[in-house]
User: Which sequence fits this backbone?
């Protein structure tokens, strides 16, 4: 079983969330897509991309799913779908004025109180 307690170290060259949100906004603006980037449309697109990620795992056994990144082709598909999900989530947060890291920190805090460790 894989230990998920320590997240992988971030690449030193990896941009932060604000820079990624700015790049996504510039990309959409350059194509005049902002009229389509409503909260409803972004949430719908996020759901579609999440479903595409789920589709990769749909018929795998738990053991196969744990090894999904071992196959380069499948790993590439998983990575692309994760990127699509994150892109739409970041765009949705931008449109709604949500700080995704602050929202996650607050949610973890609430869950720590709701579900205390034994």
Assistant:
């Amino acid at each position: 079983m894989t230990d998920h307690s320590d997240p992988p170290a971030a690449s030193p060259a990896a941009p932060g969330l604000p820079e990624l949100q700015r790049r996504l906004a510039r990309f959409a603006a350059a194509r005049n897509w902002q009229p389509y980037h409503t909260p409803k449309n972004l949430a719908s697109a996020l759901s579609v991309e999440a479903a595409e990620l789920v589709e990769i795992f749909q018929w795998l056994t738990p053991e196969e799913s744990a090894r999904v990144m071992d196959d380069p082709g499948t790993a590439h598909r998983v990575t692309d779908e994760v990127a699509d999900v994150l892109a739409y989530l970041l765009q949705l947060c931008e449109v709604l004025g949500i700080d995704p890291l602050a929202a996650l920190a607050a949610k973890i805090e609430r869950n720590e109180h709701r579900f205390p460790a034994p």
